[in-house]
Specification:
elongated
């Protein structure tokens, strides 16, 4: 598997071409569709917050719950 951006686009364009029945004369269209898909996936990975970029919760301690609920008065 090719790890370069161009290689990933090339592989995806080939998959699209193959799935379309290998038509002649549509290489540019297949390339552009593949390019859009590969770049969108790359951008999604870059913009998705990872464990190191997540902000800690403002509330580190869970809210207190009333222990008297459900108890009979007595």
């Amino acid at each position: 598997m090719n790890d370069t951006l161009e290689g990933r686009i090339r592989e995806r364009a080939y998959e699209i071409w193959n799935a379309a029945g290998r038509p002649e004369g549509q290489a540019e269209r297949h390339w552009l569709v593949a390019e859009r898909e590969v770049l969108a996936m790359a951008m999604a990975r870059v913009s998705a917050p990872g464990p190191a970029t997540r902000r800690p919760s403002r509330r580190s301690v869970p809210p207190a719950t009333s222990k008297s609920k459900g108890r009979a008065a007595g």
